[in-house]
Design brief:
This protein is α/β, with parallel strands linked by helices. It is built from 16 helices and 8 strands.
Amino acid sequence: MKKIAIIGAGSWGTTLAVLLGEKGFDVKLWARREKLANEIEAKKENTQYLPGIKIPNNVIADHSLKDVINDSGIIITAIPSEFLRSTIKQIKPYFNNQIVVSATKGLEHNTCRRMSQVIEDELGNVKIAVLSGPNHAEEVSSKMPTASVVASKDKRTGKTVSEALAKPYFKLYQLNDVAGVEICGALKNISAIATGVCDGFGFGDNARASIITLGLMEMNNFGRHFGAKRGTVYGLAGVGDLIATCISRHSRNRFVGEQLAKSKPIEEIKREMHGMVAEGIPTTKAVYEYSKKHNIEMPLTHQAYEVLFENKNLKQAIKDLLNLI
């Protein structure tokens, strides 16, 4: 397990590469763009996604999936949900029964499949774990105290991954509720967009707390359809991640909501994020469509969908939400 492959050179993938490199692992970090891989390797810093954080010499950035995956014991995927399936298809020819860790928080857009399910669809019966929780890359990379979870159906796999990633400042707890952890990690982003809207309008702490509470209720309602455990929803992967994402200045999804409150169109907001992805946007669509199909009451998600995908007026959406709850 001395060699670890990380797929995705965004802020979170780079943070995990730095953490593992500092623990003495030989880390290969895959960047989709060859130019980015070369820049990271030359500067030993990811100036686009994680500026100011030094990358250890035993972390090698590369554009070749084959070279990155070769001889690895663990593969960590840290790429946007919309690109996961296509990337796993590219990985498959070089896959050699490694442990796969999903560090992506989202749901597949058209199928509402969880990320671990997408991986299993393409790779078959694989040893898989999910990393989730309140873990903003900006704080973990700065070695600020963080607690998160590793979920796996296989206890040995979960233990191996937890031991590989654990640091004094990065505390990990093992769970077996993979579905619950993934559903929570996806749905909290919808609430964060709504919280950002409240903050953008200057509605105050009362409104923010109400949105977070409603988001938690929807997380629980939606999660039950996937067998999510109550303890997961009310633990680090659920309410913990929900609070962090809804209040943090590092939250991309909260940023989207704030900019929407300033009447900026969604495409302009995406451009302002300079390549970073707010998973809450596609997740809102996936969750809305699934909830409609299965008659799950999701008033917050419903209004978020109409704002993001049907150009509904924000103030009208807020008014309708108040009438629905």
